[in-house]
Fold AMP-binding protein.
Amino acid sequence: MQGHEHYVRQILAKLSAEPGGVPLVHRDTPTTARRLADSVISAAARMREHGVGPGSAVAVLTNPNTPETLILRYAANLVGATAVHIRGVNAVDPSDELSAEAQLGILMDVRPAMLAIDRDNIARALELCGSLPERPPVAVLGGGGALPSAIDLSAPGDIDLTTAEQGTIAVVTYTSGSTGKPKGVSWPYAVKNEMVATSAVRGDRARCLVTAPLTHSSGATADDTIVAGGVVVLHPGFDTAEVLRAVPRHGITRLVLGAPQVNALAEHPDAANTDLTSLRELFYTGSPAAPERLAHAVKALGPVLFQVYGTSETGLISLLTPQDHLDPELRATVGRPPEAVRVSIRSVADGRELPVGEAGEVCVIGRWQMAGYWNEPALTARAVRDGWVHTGDIGHLDEAGWLHLHGRIADVIKVKGIKVHPSAVERVLLEHPGVEAAAVFGVEDEQRVERICAAVVPRDGVTLDRAVLERHITAALSANHVPAEIELRETLPLVGPGKPDRMRLRTEAVARAAQAEGTAS
């Protein structure tokens, strides 16, 4: 991977080759290739003037899904620094911002050489810097305004692209994962360089609609689209009706969504009357994805669905193609690993490799995986052993090489001597015609006995009967899989595409139980 050219130079070369092109559209406002390239180069020149380079970090704080987010990352990387996004850890919802306290914790961990922001985050930057023992210089893209001491990253500048440098780590993205404490997933320059080089060769000129945060995996999607001569249309978040309108308006050929968002599109009343003929690829991530609802999505949206299974740490692990989606049995899997990815199912107890068909931890050696967790050597050592990333997911490979997921190691619930995988119960709930979304989790009572709890979102206009849901689960699984509590709610909190925040739901359930006990006494 070391032989590939610096990924930002690859992107700038593409922009300079087609200066009149439009690689970005934000709020229906186009950004030309020339303007994007000039903005990156000017910002990089100013960063270098102020001592930013290999070995240093630039903390990036911008509004969600704006050109500024890409410009500041490209600029920091062009001078060889590490770009660290501090706005949020939510990989699904761009509007979900970390508290100032949490952002301060990341800054204390990173100790950046510069805090690079857009104009809308000047007040937050002042708040953060006022609490830091060592205040980094603040640089603003678009001018400092109320912060006259700030470095203006929009001031014209130039940089010799032949001297573009690179350190070891290009990007750090913080994710809450399932533990709650943000972890900085570190991506090396070598990985970024190869990913972009691969996309540049493909040159498919996709028109990609981005609704998930550019600070997370959608940032790589944007890089790949731009270097391949395509267009990235930025939305501030996912709105079903807006996405349906955007596809014909912008001739969108590629979408990247979470599994629940695919269902929302397919089941929206306007979907049948919307011209989706331009759409060639709809990649979706997250789990669970109920096979019956996938069948409906294929019928409503066409043979365009690609299910991607991966993690922040590994990148792509397996893929279910549009052709695979036509097979009812394969829709219950997450596809097969590509040739460049090695998957091993290992015993949680002793780490030995398990035979075909036996469930264990999914371990991966990926083509494009993380270098480790930022400043967390012990955590990295636990997650990556002998080159294998231990995902924490439970699954098995069948004889044909298809990967089946059962849930998370930490989420398994022990009820009356049996192990209940929450994802199995969630899939059954999602197959009920009145259920829009569902999350299942375990809660211990005062006797340290686990009980199953479920949070369920009804479809619009549907009144759900808990007893009906209980019978539905019993018929599909067993009485032991029926939740002791089923909470009906309007939405589910998420920590990733289609991934319910079970920790938050568990905390809320414990609080409800404590309140009920206090009321009873």
Remarks:
- The radius of gyration is 23 Å.
